Amino acid sequence: MTETTGRLDLGNGTELAWARLEGRGSTVVFLPGFRSDMTGDKATALVACCAELGIGMLRFDYSGHGSSSGEFMDGTIGAWAADALAAIDALTSGPLILVGSSMGGWIALLTALARPDRVAALVGIAAAPDFTQRLMWESMAPSERTTLERDGVLYVPSQYGDPTPITLKLIQDGANHLVLTGRMPIHCPVRLLHGQADPDVPWELALRIAEQVDTPDVQVTLVKDGDHRLSRPSDLALLRRTVAALLGQDGA
After folding, report:
1. pTM higher than 0.90, yes or no?
2. Is 9 known to be catalytic?
C-alpha cells in the first residue's frame, strides 16, 4: 500500500499538506501536537501499522505547521480544530479512529464533539486538552502575563529547540474551546496513553479526561518511565497494539 499526498485548499489562502493511505473499513486519522507535524515517529509508525492491517489512514499538517502554508504565530486552537474538520470532511469517508498527540488530543476531543456520527474511537497520547489555560496562562508569572498582554507574544524556552512563541490570541481563543469544564458527550471508546515521567503534561490529566467523557468504554494506560513524546520503540509498540485492538485486528 502506497500513500498519496496532496494539498487541500481551504479557500482562505491556506493550503494543508496531507498524506493518505487507502484501505478498508475505518480510517485512522493522526492529529499532531503543538509545533509538531505529520512526519514524526508516532505518525510514521501508524502508517506502517495501517498498511500492514490494510486500514486507511490520513495524516496532515495544521496551518503554520510542517509543510502546510500559513504562519505558526497566526494559529489558534479554533483555527487548528477547523483545519482538522476540513481535512476529515474533504479527504475521508466512513468511521474514523482519531489518534491525537498532546495538543492533538485536544483537537481529537473537539473533533469527536463536532462529528459524533463519524468518530468510532479516540486515542489520546499525552493528551493535553485546555493546555493554553491550565499549562500556559495559569502557570505564568505575573511578569510573563504582563509581557504577553503588552507585546502580544511571549517567548518561552523549550527543551525541544528554539523558544516557543505563545501569542495572546492563542490564549484568548483557547479559552473559547475548553472541554474539561463539565461532562463531554463523547460516547465512543476512548483510550488514553500517558507517561508518568512526562515533564510537560501531568499524567493526572488523563484521569480527568476519563472521568469527564460520557462513554463507559475508557481505558487509561500509564507508562511509568514514559516521557511526553512516547516515541521509544516500546511506546510505539503500545500505540500499535492499542489501535489494532480498536480495529479488532489485534489477534485477540
Report:
1. yes
2. no
